[in-house]
Amino acid sequence: MSLYFNVYFFPFWWLSTVVMLQLKYPVLSDYYKFILVTVMILTSLIEVIRLYLGYMGNLQEKVPELAGFWLLTLLLQLPVILFLLFNEGLNIQPLERSVNIIFALFLIFQVIAAFVTLKRMVNKLATHFHLNEFDRLEEHPVRHHYGPSKEENILPMASMGPC
């Protein structure tokens, strides 16, 4: 559900961030100009990929896609949004602060939800795999060639004398 709302929120976030960047661009120092333009380009590309992976991983129950979504969220998007939210050298405006807080809340919730979902999905797939292996063992039992059978004793007790 969070991904659904994030898909609709992202264009609003992008538009408001670009408008605020355009308004404050003349007062920023040169290195913050470069950093903000780079962050906007990277965030836009990463967010599209991240949302696609989240949808594919969630709807089709694919572990690699969902893991990619989780990693992109945790390692790239969340630090970038926290940088935009807490770096005071960027001359943060109220609109920017509000949309970045909402975006950060989305990301934090998605990191937690994706971790829980990944854990459940991997456990379910592992259980399914083990059950399939168990069914194959019942159809074609494997003989134990490495140890004695149940009828054989390892040490015959009759040959041992009294203790």
Helix content: over 70%
pLDDT average, as an integer?
87
Largest sheet: none
Number of domains: 1
Q: What is the molecular shape?
A: elongated
Distance between the termini: 73 Å
Q: Could you tell me the number of beta strands?
A: 0
| SSE string, helices as H and strands as E | HHHH
Structural class: mainly alpha
Measured by DSSP, the beta-strand proportion falls in under 5%
Report low-confidence residues grouped into runs of 5 or more.
none
Rg over CA atoms: 28 Å
Number of helices: 4
InterPro entries: Uncharacterised_TM-17
Keywords: Cell membrane, Cell projection, Cilium, Cilium biogenesis/degradation, Membrane, Transmembrane, Transmembrane helix
Subunit structure: Part of the tectonic-like complex (also named B9 complex).
Family: Belongs to the TMEM17 family.
